[in-house]
């Protein structure tokens, strides 16, 4: 059953059209950002397909199954066109996008050389960066001055980029490295306290927070692709709501955790028990090097560990999940580069307590999986803001390991529930009925 009202009875939300150019700025011009930018340009030139992108390749069912209405999402929702996207970035390393992509080693020459002319024009702006927050990276292309001065300089960068490229709108997607673990404190409690902490260059204000503050102040949606404490603090959430800015995060869900959000809901649906889940990874890119630092790994570990507990709900199903062991390891192994390999050993429990095992060996390409997420988040964040949505965009949880939610609300980690939430949000905004999959009307 699709609801009591009909689509004709409902009104679509007022949504500003996606006219003009959309600027996409990425803090970070490393493996993920360059793979994303190169991929979009390759698609624009007809050299490849946007595989992995919901906004470009997925359909959405409208109405009853018998209606046979399943347009592409990009044909149903007024998203920015790929031809209207303009790219920019900040990075502490001054390499242009072509040089950075070559060094990252994700894409082969056959894919980079045809678009070298385009990638070479994208040069990173000076980054708001401090080595103590990402200890394994050193760079010379950095801003100086107090944290307030750096944040104001970021605002000017956004304004200059927008003017120089004739952009109507700008979104920011964090594609930089994972910062050290920071707990929210009094410096993050209110806008006033946050800005005073910026003035004092307080250590509790990480560089990612400066980008977020600058984005919000300039009216730009912000998507956090890393597990850093960034926009998920009261001060920036309040500021975003005041300024009408859409936020989402955090930590792109690409490899091992993505698999967990597929497998764990299946186990729970069948009421199978879990004794333990051991996960280990080897990764050799810049992200792997950064995560080799225990302080940065702590931030990532907190993000990865929360998924299973939230999906399985051991407090509600103690006979199945109470006290299960969950271990996560990430090892920096340079020979692998961006080709991450993950191993999972899952000890499950079945009928009458008999043990079974699932083994997963996932040989993935980290940035290849992340790049289409950057595209979708940029386009959906821009769409949300044009639809008048502000603050936390929980409907974009589909893309994140640690989805942001309202205070006191448990995040939803089940990938398939997240997908339903995303598509139902699009239906709602466009004046279509929600899909509940009840289907009793077919058997009346």
TrEMBL record:
Pfam families in the record: Inos-1-P_synth (PF01658), NAD_binding_5 (PF07994)
Residue span(s) of domain Myo-inositol-1-phosphate synthase GAPDH-like: 255-367
Domain of life: Bacteria
Coiled-coil ranges per UniProt: none
Gene3D superfamilies cross-referenced by the UniProt entry: Dihydrodipicolinate Reductase, domain 2 (3.30.360.10), NAD(P)-binding Rossmann-like Domain (3.40.50.720)
UniProt similarity note: Belongs to the myo-inositol 1-phosphate synthase family.
Name of the protein: Myo-inositol-1-phosphate synthase
